[in-house]
Amino acid sequence: MGEVILQMSKIRKSFPGVLALDDASLTLRAGEVHALMGENGAGKSTLMKCLFGVYRRESGEILLSGREVSFKSPREALDAGVAMVHQELNQALKLTVAENMWLGRLPRVRRLPFLVSSEKMRERTRRVFSELGLSIDPDVKMESLSVSERQMVEIAKAVSFDASVIVFDEPTSSLTEGEAEKLFEIIRLLKSRGTGIIYISHKMNEILRICDTVTVMRDGRHIETRAAEELSVEKIIKLMVGRDITERFPKREKKPAGELLRVEGIGGEYSRLKSASLTLRSGEVLGVAGLDGSGRTELIEAIFGLSKRRGGRIFLSGREVMNRTPAEAKKNGFALLTEERRADGIFGIRDIRDNITISSLKKYGKRIILDERQMSRDTKEYMKAIKIKAPTERTKISTLSGGNQQKVILARWLLTDPRVLLLDEPTRGIDVGAKHEIYLLINRLAESGRGVIVVSSEMPELLGISDRIIVMSGGRVAGELLASEATQEKIMELAAKYA
User: How many CA atoms lie less than 13 Å away from 327 in the CB half-sphere?
Assistant: First the structure.
């Protein structure tokens, strides 16, 4: 590793009712992959936003290549050689891949500078993609890409700035295993060029594999910085949460009872889902595994009525239900937590109370008069029950960490008292402490007699929390395994069956 290229010292930042950063520090060297770790709400993203010009720090110093900087906007940071790949994608979906790559710096026709050169855009995009080994068509609309492909475009865009410092915030949270390997190749390439990389992730094995140094934050403060080779998963967890977590996947006492849900041969009218059948027992956690594009998400969206179904039948406690729309599915006792909470889960401009009660407004009154006191009482009760960290129930949800946003959405659905919960990547981008709390919550829901279906791309998670696992492949159910007999190898074998 080379000389110090970034020094952040004694950074302080507060928001109304909360001190987000208190004397936070970080040092990055050229050619170093530096992990920044901590629970959700520890201050990692806030510290990076202070670097990137999204937030203004109240005190402290930032030195870039020995020169003090204080960026007033992300554009200033990019111009100075600091790029950031955000966890939550914010792209122009109606524009092409090439247009998204060069937004704000569109190449112009040489003799007619008021015109954008589409040819130059495509050529430059292909050059960057070729260098990184990506095979995405620059001319397709962003909305036609999968979440993982859109993430790879965002990574390529950051690389295209030729930055000396690149921040990756949960870059593999929506990537397939093969795409994650491609990302690691890109990181090794950047490292060989002397680029300094700050890598934020909750995937411990990933951190220990690719990072040189690990800095742990807790409650907005720097806790410790150590060489990655000196650490283990258990040591990192203890530094992050300040305590030992004895059981990563908590056990359930009660066993599943009789059949609650039966799905027979449902397909998707406009999706990859061809024909899928499953059963779910009362008090059971059913895991759904499969490769990206296997039909995992499409399956639960079809059950919930979020996408149009082609054929098939759904039975709840022996009675057929149609679930033609999400409203009808909700009325029938179903709830769906979607994969992309920022895009289609939260109402970013509203507070916690509004986000929790939005699906249950009828219980608080009729027409335009709502019982706001009862809404606040219920919100506070759920905030306490599932440990949502926020100053008050009127705190804007957009200011919360990803883990706390996820808990708010879970609270919203719990308030509707569902019988079947459909959870799509419920712990995506969430730290180990918050994951443990969500696993405990899933267990409590199952033990109360509800049925829970969990779609996850993290196989250790599925193996740890499920009673049974079905594996999707090519839009079909390729097989079913008891969690006690399942292994990652068996799951992957089934996942490739119809792929």
Answer: 2
